[in-house]
Amino acid sequence: MTINEVSVFRRTERAGGLFRPRGRSTILATRWGLPAVSLVALCVMAPSGSAIAASATVTASGIVHDPVQIESSSRGVVTSTNWSGYADTGASFTSVIGTWVQPTASCPTNQQQDASFWVGIDGFLKSSGTVEQIGTDSDCNKGNKKFPGGPSYYAWWEMFPQASNNLSTKQFPVFAGDTISAQVTASGTTFTLTINDVSRGWSFSPGPQTASAAESSAEWIAEAPSICRGSKCTPVKLAAFGTVSFTGAAANGSAISASAFSDNQINMTKGKKTLKASASALSGGSAFSVTWHHN
Predict the structure, then answer these.
(1) By three-state DSSP, how is residue 32 classified?
(2) Dihedral sign, CA of 140, 268, 123, 252?
(3) Contact 193, 45 (CB under 8 A)
(4) How far apart are CA 117 and CA 252, in angstroms?
(5) 3-292: what fold?
(6) 3-state secondary structure of 104
(7) Which of 79, 154, 155, 269 has the greatest number of CB atoms lying within 10 Å of its CB?
(8) How far apart are CA 31 and CA 29, in angstroms?
(9) Which residues contact 215 (CB under 8 A, 6 or more apart)?
(10) How far apart are CA 108 and CA 149, in angstroms?
(11) pLDDT tens, the chain, 295 aa long
(12) Separation between Cα atoms, residue 193 and residue 195, nearest integer Å
């Protein structure tokens, strides 16, 4: 099977002002006990003095980290069904960076619940149907005969609307409490995505990625990712992650609160009455936390 057969390219359609991925429903994930195909990453880095891996195994994921699904917006505060955190607009964005501590997932018995934490470019404005992003997950998995249920932690990257790719947990282990730093940079249509587990001492980049993107927003997000069945994609239940704190959050070399940007605080809701996750006010212009409330 070729890389093109593994990567799922979807068309997007605008429905009610929201972008949703559409197309082949063959994105499969090992977390559901379905086969996945290994890819070879283009670039793996390690800190000075440590071994450098020759290749990195990643797998096509059934989870989609899609553009924001906005319910309402008023005076810089946005409610969304899938994102919580911050998004900057008002400029052409060529870099975004941030650091967070990997939260612990508190898992109910044998239920699938996911929580994603990432930095990225694009996906916030209606004019943008792509998201260039890299991050980690704290998930709760369903058990089966081969694998017990419970929490799992891993890193991933995605050039939406292409398929999301999970890193090998053997080569790039992630544990609750790890300090994670991630960055996305753009030069024309070329994007470089990098993630570092500071606690474990590894660093990963899939190598240059090409996309025709608006570069109209920068984001620092806790997300309830989506699962697609056919053309319908819906957010999964949000795993109980407690609180995740983002620090050193900057775009184009400036803090979230820089006067050159319009910063948008995003709270995740389910319907009009259920608050799923909320973002705090900014601290020092480049730090904030997201707190879980409901799945």
Answers:
(1) helix
(2) negative
(3) no
(4) 20
(5) Jelly Rolls (2.60.120)
(6) coil
(7) 155
(8) 5
(9) 92, 93, 94, 121, 122, 186
(10) 9
(11) 333 333 333 333 333 333 333 333 333 333 333 333 333 344 444 443 333 332 445 555 578 999 999 999 998 899 999 999 999 999 999 999 999 999 999 998 778 899 999 999 999 999 999 999 999 999 998 876 666 678 999 999 999 999 899 999 999 999 999 999 999 999 999 999 999 999 999 999 999 999 999 999 999 999 999 987 777 778 899 999 999 999 999 999 999 999 999 999 999 999 878 999 999 999 999 999 999 999 9
(12) 7
Residue 106 is given by DSSP the state: B
Six-digit token pair at 249? 């959050």
Cα 42 to Cα 207: distance, rounded to the nearest angstrom: 5
Find tokens 């017990």 and name the residue. 148
Model confidence pTM above 0.90: no
Helix, coil or strand: residue 3: helix
Query: Of 234, 225, 31, 233, whose CA–CA distance to 142 is shortest?
Result: 31
What's the CA gap between 280 and 289, in Å, rounded? 5
> Quick one: which H or E segment has residue 5?
helix 3-6
Residues in the chain: 295
Contact (Cβ atoms closer than 8 angstroms) between residue 157 and residue 166: no
Two structure tokens written together for 248: 């050193």
| Amino acid at residue number 1 | M
